[in-house]
Backbone:
């Protein structure tokens, strides 16, 4: 197996769940939003977060041959829906996880997915491996 | 209710779901598909539509619970829903973003592309404008105070 292709140690944090704010008091809402903004600004100042954005609940899901099927995204009431992302540049996965643990939405039920950003598409890597095996067999 | 969206500068995030579309393809088919995808991507880049794009590694963690008390390995390998990569698109509107998503050459192998408008502001503060008006107002007042102090 070749070395992993995430040499830069970039990670994407995907924030899942867009209904966790329901039922919070105005004071709790204000606190979690200002804590979240402060967290984002601090990570940017530290050079650990290169950017991030919330995503609108509405959207489209495109699938099928030539993208024939276009559905409205079922994002409105979902614990799984992705509500936003941060792009991190950090030392390693542990640091990315430690940062994810600081997410102010966690105590209200938000979920953070931590994913390494790959240099090369894994399918391209698999294709190259298949190619090598074919060459070796000849 | 303010329903006017505050999308940032016409940015849309395309999330590619179903990272195992290559299973069952022959080497030739796979090579052709990869060439087409690269051509598609280069074409979009040349037109200035791409603000960023990366594949994601299949490894990863899911963090939940207060103070991130629960850390589990993500089940990304098996899931058709899992996100295999993303493309941050610059488009005129949602229709153009959807058209671009539809032109992805590997849709026919079963991937799904989620098209999401990127927001300038947190949707929570959009849902509760009354709560955050005051914070904005305070920031404006603070700026004015600073400006008058400097004058």
Residues:
């Amino acid at each position: 197996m070749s070395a992993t292709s995430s040499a830069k140690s970039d990670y994407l944090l995907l924030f899942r769940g867009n209904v966790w704010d329901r039922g919070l008091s105005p004071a709790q809402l204000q606190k979690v939003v200002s804590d979240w903004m402060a967290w984002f600004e601090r990570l940017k100042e530290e050079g650990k977060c290169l950017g991030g954005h919330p995503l609108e609940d509405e959207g489209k899901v495109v699938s099928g041959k030539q993208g024939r099927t276009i559905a409205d995204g079922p994002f409105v009431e979902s614990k799984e829906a992705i509500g936003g992302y941060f792009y991190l540049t950090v030392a390693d996965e542990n640091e990315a996880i430690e940062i994810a643990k600081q997410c102010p939405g966690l105590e209200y039920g938000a979920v953070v997915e931590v994913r390494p950003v790959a240099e090369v598409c894994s399918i391209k890597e698999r294709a190259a491996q298949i190619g090598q095996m074919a060459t070796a067999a000849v | 209710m303010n329903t006017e969206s505050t999308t940032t500068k016409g940015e849309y995030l395309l999330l590619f779901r179903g990272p195992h579309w290559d299973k069952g393809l022959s080497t030739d088919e796979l090579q052709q598909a990869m060439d087409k995808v690269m051509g598609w991507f280069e074409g979009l880049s040349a037109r200035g539509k791409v603000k960023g794009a990366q594949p994601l590694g299949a490894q990863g963690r899911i963090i939940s619970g207060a103070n991130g008390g629960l850390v589990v390995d993500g089940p990304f390998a098996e899931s058709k829903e899992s996100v295999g990569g993303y493309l941050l698109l610059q488009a005129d509107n949602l229709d153009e973003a959807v058209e671009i998503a539809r032109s992805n050459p590997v849709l026919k192998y079963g991937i799904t592309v989620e098209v999401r408008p990127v927001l300038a502001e947190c949707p929570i503060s959009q849902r509760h404008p009354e709560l955050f008006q005051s914070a904005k107002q305070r920031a404006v007042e603070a700026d004015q105070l600073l400006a008058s102090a400097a004058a």
